[in-house]
Design a protein that fits this description.
single chain; 4-stranded mixed β-sheet; alpha/beta; 3-stranded mixed β-sheet; L-arginine/glycine Amidinotransferase, Chain A
C-alpha cells in the first residue's frame, strides 16, 4: 500500500487493514562523551549555550540506558563523534524497518542543520555492521528528513506516522511511501516548541497514543483519532516543561519518561501502563529527552 494521507477526507483504510510488522527488539544509544551545547538550532537551546553539565549528563544517560535494559531490550552503544555534540539524540539520523520478507532495511536521514549532517555516516556504520540494506534519499528532490525524530512507526504495524513542517519535508514521505510501499499519515507540525513529531506524539502500543493536541492542525488530530482507541492528551505545561510526549514505550507496557508530569503519569497508570521516571534535564536544555536518546532497531 503506497499513499500519503494528509486529511481524513482521503483516508480509505482502517487499522484493521494494516499489515503486521515485527516489533524492534534492540535499542541503539550513543554515548554522550562529546555532548555539549555549542549552538542554537531550536528554541530549547536558547540561553543554554555552554551550560551543559557533562558529568551529570553522563549519569542521566546511564540511568536511561538502565531503564531500557530493565524492560528486557538489548541496548547497543555507539561511541559519539568528536565535534558532534548532538549525536546523542540518535532518533534523528535514520529510519530502520523490516520489509515483507523479514529483511532489515534502513533509510538514512538528510539532517536539516549543517552542524548535524556528519552524524549520519557514523550511525550508518552501525547498520552496515549489522547487515542492514541501506538506502539514501534523493538529495535533489528532498531537502530534509530527520529519521524517527519525525517518522514514527505504528506499534507492530506497517504504517508510518510522519511529522513535517520544521525538520522534515512532506516530499520525503511521498518518496518513502512510493519506494518502500508503506502508507504514511502525514501530520503538519504547527508549534515551534514541537519541531519534531517525537516531541508531541508518543505511540504507546497498537491502540494507544500520547499527544500534545496544540502541536497539530485539526485535520491531523482527526487522523490520530481515527486510528487510536486510547488517546492521552498531555497538558501544555507538562508537554513543554517536562517533555512528557518525548517519553517512549519500548515494550508496549512500560513508559520511560522524564519526572514531573503528574497529570500525564496519572493518565498512563489509569490506562494500565507502568511508569518509570528517569531525569533527562541536561539533555532537555538541548531540546531532547528519552525518545530522542534512542533508536529502536532489529
Amino acid at each position: 500500500m503506497s499513499k500519503v494521507i494528509t486529511s481524513i477526507n482521503n483516508l480509505d483504510f482502517t487499522a484493521a487493514d494494516l499489515t503486521s510488522m515485527d516489533k524492534p527488539g534492540k535499542i541503539i544509544m550513543v554515548r554522550p562523551t562529546h555532548f555539549s551545547i555549542d549552538y542554537v538550532i531550536n528554541k530549547h537551546m536558547e540561553g543554554n549555550v555552554g551550560k551543559a553539565d557533562k558529568a551529570l549528563a553522563m549519569q542521566q544517560w546511564e540511568a536511561v540506558k538502565s531503564a531500557f535494559e530493565d524492560t528486557g531490550m538489548e541496548v547497543h552503544v555507539i561511541e559519539g563523534g568528536e565535534g558532534l555534540p548532538d549525536m546523542v539524540f540518535c532518533a534523528n539520523q535514520s529510519l530502520p524497518f523490516k520489509n515483507d520478507d523479514g529483511d532489515k532495511e534502513v533509510i538514512m536521514s538528510i539532517m536539516d542543520s549543517v552542524h548535524r549532517k556528519p552524524e549520519v555516516s557514523l550511525i550508518e556504520k552501525w547498520y552496515e555492521d549489522q547487515e542492514y540494506q541501506i538506502h539514501h534519499l534523493n538529495y535533489k528532490k528532498i531537502s530534509r528528513f530527520e529519521g524517527m525524530g519525525d517518522a514514527i512507526w505504528h506499534y507492530g504495524k506497517k504504517l508510518l506516522w510522519g511529522g513535517y513542517g520544521f525538520r522534515t519535508s512532506l516530499e520525503a514521505y511521498h518518496y518513502i511511501s512510493d519506494t518502500y510501499k508503506v502508507p504514511v499519515i502525514a501530520l503538519k507540525l504547527e508549534h515551534p516548541e514541537f519541531y519534531h513529531l517525537d516531541t508531541c506524539f508518543c505511540v504507546l502500543n497498537e491502540t494507544s497514543v500520547m499527544i500534545y493536541p496544540g502541536a497539530f492542525e485539526k485535520k491531523g488530530l482527526d487522523l490520530i483519532r481515527a486510528f487510536f482507541d486510547t488517546i492521552i492528551e498531555v497538558p501544555e505545561d507538562e508537554a513543554i516543561g517536562s517533555f512528557a510526549c518525548n517519553a517512549t514505550c519500548p515494550d508496549g507496557s512500560t513508559v520511560v519518561i522524564h519526572p514531573g508530569a503528574q497529570k500525564t503519569n496519572a493518565q498512563l497508570k489509569h490506562e494500565g501502563f507502568k511508569v518509570v521516571e528517569v531525569p533527562t534535564g541536561e539533555f532537555m536544555k538541548s531540546g531532547g529527552s528519552v525518545f530522542c536518546m534512542k533508536m529502536m532497531a532489529y
